[in-house]
Fold:
Amino acid sequence: MMKATFFLIVGCLFYCTGTLLAETETKEPTETKEEKKEGGKDLLDFSSIKDIIKKDGLEGELKKKQDEKRKYLDNKKLQEMKRYNVPTQDVFWSFFSELWLVKNATTLKWDIHKPDFELEKSFTAFLESQGHFEKKIKILLMDSTEIAHAALPSNQDEYIFILSLPFVRTLDLSKVEISLLLFEDFVRIRKGYFKNFVLDKELENYLGSNFSGKPFDKKLIDAHLKKYNQLLFEKGFSFQEQFETTKEVDVLLKNDLKMWNTYLTMLEKIDNLVKTNTLYKKYNQIYPSPELQINWLKPKNSVL
Amino acid sequence: MKKIVFLFLFIISNLALSAEAEADKMKKSLIGVKYFSEMMGNVHQNPSRYSQVLTTISCNHPVKVMKEVSKDGKEFVLFGEDKWHLVTVGPYVGYVMADYLTDKKNECFEEQYSKFFDGLNLDINDLYYWARLYDQYVQGKSKVRQ
Structure:
C-alpha cells in the first residue's frame, strides 16, 4: 500500500512537471513569433515614413543641386563653344585690314621714322567742315610707291588710310591737298566698293559662324587677304566706281569753290605725275584715271 | 701732402654733387592701374614712338600708371607733348601712349575670338609688326556734332 501511494505521488509529480514543461515549451515559440512580428513591424514602419522623408525637402534639394550642376556644365560648354566663334562683320574688317598691313609690312615699308605732319588734325578738321562727326581715323604713312593712297575696309565709324610718303613729297602736296586726297578715299570706302570686292558669299557665310568641332579655315582667310593685294596692286577700281566717287566728291566740294579748285589742281598734279614718272605708271590702273576725273569735274562747254 | 688733401677735397666735392643730383631726381608715385586697349603695343624707353622698345604688351594687359613729382612739388602725369604715360610693366619702367590706356578692361578681339585668333598662327614677327603698327599710326577723331 505504501508502495502504491509512493508511486502515485511520484507519478503525480512527473505529471505536474511534464505539464509545466509542456507549457513552457509551447510558450517559447509564441514569444519568438512576437519578436519576429516586432522586427517585421520595423520594416513596415520605414516604408510608411517614406512620405514623411519626402516632405523634408531632401529630394527637392537633390534635384536643385542636379539642375545647378547641369546648368553649370551647359554654361561651361557654351563658353567653350563661344571660343570658336568667327567674328561678325561688325568687328571683322578693322582686324582684317590690320592683319593685311602686318603681313605686308615689308612690302609697304610703313615701319619707318617719319616727320610729324599732324595730318590727323588737319584731316579731322576737314571732316568736321564737311559734316562728318565722330569718325575715328588712323593714317599710316609708307615709304613705298607700290600704293599711292588708299582707305582700307574697317569697322563702323572707323577709317584706316595708307598714304605713300614719296608720293606726297614728289607732288609736294599741302595739308589741304592731302586732306582732299584722303577725303576721296573716304568717299570711295564709304561706297563699299572695296568691301564688296573682298566679301564673297563664302566669307559672308563664314563670318559670324562657329567652327567648334571643325578645323579652322585658314585657307579662306589667306585667300581673302590676297584679294586686298589683287585690288590694291593689280586690278584697282572700275571706271564706273571711279566716276561715282569723283562725282560725289564734286558735289560735296561744290559749296566751297576754293576747296573744289584745290581738288582740281591736285588731280592735275597727279595726272602730270603719272604721265611723266614711271614709278607711278600703275596709278592709272588702280584709280582710272586722273585725266578722266578732271574731265568729269570740268563743266561741259555749252554750244550756243 | 698737398696732393693728398686736394684729392680728398675732390672726392668729397664729387660725392656731394652726386648726392645733390640724386636729390634733384623726380620722385615717382603710383596713380593707378590702367589697361592696354589695342591688339598689341610697345612700352618705350622714352616718350617717343621711335624710342627703344622695352617690352611688348597685348590687349587688356594691366599697367601701373605713375606720376613724377619734382622737388618743388610739381606733378607730371603726361609726357612728350602730353601723349604718353609713365608706366611700370613687370620689371620695366617706360612709356605707353595715353590714348591706348583705359581705366576699365576692354572687349579684346583676341579674347572674344580666341580660337579664330589662334587659328591665324601669327608668328613673333607678325606680333612685333602689330605692336609697331600702333606706334606708327597717326590717329584722330572728328568732334561730336555741336
Observations:
- Chain B touches chain A through 28 residues (CB under 8 Å).
